[in-house]
UniProtKB/TrEMBL annotation:
Domain Rieske: residue ranges: 31-130
Organism: Rotaria sordida
Name of this protein: Rieske domain-containing protein
Keyword Cytoplasm appears in the UniProt entry: no
Alphabetized UniProt keyword annotations: 2Fe-2S, Iron, Iron-sulfur, Metal-binding
Amino acid sequence: MANLKSIPTTITCNNDKDNKISALNDKQIRYELCAINDLNNGQMKEFEIKTSLVNTSILLIRQNNRFYAYSSKCCHYKLPLVKGVLVNNHLRCFAHGACFRVDTGDIEDHPGHGNLPKYDVEIVDNQIILVAKIQDLEKLERTKIPDNLITEAKPVVAIIGAGA
């Protein structure tokens, strides 16, 4: 993490005794997860992130020499995805079979309706660094509907039935 300390805009949090976290500002964190050699291709590992800024867990996946970080919980029943199956660029939940693409986090097979929140990762000095907004780490699912979507649609009410 020596490179992270040298960035002038980075504030190192003193409350993390392992010195694994730094805050870019009050809305984004950088968290050192592990060394790149700690995970082989086709492997995944859950990491607990407990700091004064956030308390959550993420799932790190190494697939085809690329690293992907997601929420560690399935969008369906919030069960741990680390117990699931990782095969052919897909992650399948162990409980009910919800299936997500490894490269995007998008759901491809139900049950469930949301996509996995995806976080950025960087490699610095052979260490994998999670870079995420705190508000995104608190989300349990991601939709494809943009947050800033403005529509002109008016609510419609339909009453269906023949009565008596």
